[in-house]
């Protein structure tokens, strides 16, 4: 059974094709768990490339639901954010990311070299440096570091399950926090694919910029298929080379979890497996 997941606020979400479970550590030390049915897209979308684009949308929907639930568990009733407030914040974050990682590199590259191959080189180089710098910067924040620790707990727990070991804190801790199917690896792959795809765009300024935005679903679909292959053929030499940068990047986006954080990851996975 394929298991995926993500870190949430003070917890971990685990997901399979049928359902997902969110486990969070409450301020009183107890673990609270919620289970919901996974969003399942129609079978006719389950074809090469298209499944990546559609599947990513459904996974994001479940991820946002898990994030909303987790973010409110350690808040008082008066402090809790509404679904509209959280969705609005996430929407604003998405737009900000598009401006920061698509728009800004584009215009900076235009200032350095406006046309040809060098424009694409500067555009891709600046986007990569900006992305890495952003991750390093936020990883220094206390709350983000805790989130990255839960990210590490999620990976270790999934690895333990995939290797058919008993889900105990000791067993889970022995596994790596770096996983080839991680969303971080996916994002870095998208970054590299975008450099290649954007290099084929030509024409007026607005065409190049609009083309970058319109190509993102296409690039995401291709990236999904490559990540899927990496999970299936992880020992292949070529696959190892392709996934190596993403695994390296997880040194930033995952941190070694505490035993209590691992307990949350185990609780979430066990809830999904029931």
General description of the model:
The protein is α+β, with helices and mostly antiparallel strands and 274 residues long. The protein has a domain of 134 residues. It has nine helices and four strands; from the N terminus they run E-E-E-E-H-H-H-H-H-H-H-H-H. The chain has a four-stranded antiparallel β-sheet with strand order 1-2-3-4, with helices on both faces. The mean pLDDT is 84.
Instruction: Profile the largest sheet.
Output: 4 strands, antiparallel
Which series of helices and strands comes N to C?
Answer: EEEEHHHHHHHHH
Strand order of the biggest β-sheet: 1-2-3-4
- Kindly state the percentage of residues in helix: 55-70%
Strand content: 5-15%
Q: What's the pLDDT, averaged over the residues?
A: 84
Structural class: alpha+beta
Shape: globular
Number of helices: 9
What is the CA-based Rg, rounded? Answer: 19 Å
Features:
alpha+beta, 9% strand, 274 residues
Secondary structure topology:
Elements: E1 4-8, E2 11-15, E3 19-25, E4 31-37, H1 50-72, H2 83-112, H3 116-139, H4 142-162, H5 169-173, H6 183-198, H7 205-232, H8 237-253, H9 259-273
Antiparallel strand pairs: 1-2, 2-3, 3-4
Helix pairs in contact: 1-7, 2-3, 3-6, 4-9, 6-7, 6-8
Describe what is shown at a glance.
With 274 residues, the protein is α+β, with helices and mostly antiparallel strands. Helices cover 65% and strands 9% of the residues. The chain has helices spanning 50-72, 83-112, 116-139, 142-162, 169-173, 183-198, 205-232, 237-253, 259-273, and strands spanning 4-8, 11-15, 19-25, 31-37.
């Amino acid at each position: 059974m394929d298991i995926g997941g993500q870190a949430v606020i003070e917890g971990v979400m685990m997901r399979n094709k049928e359902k997902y479970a969110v486990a969070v550590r409450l301020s009183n030390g107890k673990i609270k768990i919620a289970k919901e049915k996974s969003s399942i897209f129609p079978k006719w979308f389950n074809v090469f490339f298209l499944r990546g684009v559609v599947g990513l949308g459904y996974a994001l929907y479940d991820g946002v639901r898990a994030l909303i639930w987790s973010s409110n568990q350690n808040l008082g009733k008066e402090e809790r954010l509404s679904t509209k407030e959280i969705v609005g914040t996430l929407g604003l974050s998405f737009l900000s990311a598009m401006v920061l990682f698509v728009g800004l590199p584009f215009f900076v590259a235009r200032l350095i070299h406006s046309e040809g191959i060098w424009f694409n080189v500067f555009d891709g180089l600046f986007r990569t440096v900006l992305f890495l710098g952003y991750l390093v910067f936020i990883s220094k924040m206390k709350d983000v570091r805790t989130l990255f620790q839960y990210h590490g707990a999620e990976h270790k727990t999934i690895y333990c399950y995939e290797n058919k070991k008993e889900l105990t804190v000791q067993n889970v801790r022995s596994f790596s926090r770096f996983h080839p199917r991680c969303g971080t690896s996916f994002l870095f792959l998208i970054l590299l694919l975008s450099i290649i795809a954007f290099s084929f765009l030509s024409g007026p300024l607005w065409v190049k910029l609009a083309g970058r935005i319109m190509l993102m679903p296409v690039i995401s679909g291709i990236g999904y298929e490559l990540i899927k292959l990496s999970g299936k053929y992880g020992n292949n030499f070529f696959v190892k080379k392709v996934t190596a940068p993403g695994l390296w990047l997880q040194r930033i986006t995952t941190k070694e979890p505490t035993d209590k954080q691992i307990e949350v990851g185990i609780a979430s996975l066990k809830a999904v497996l029931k």
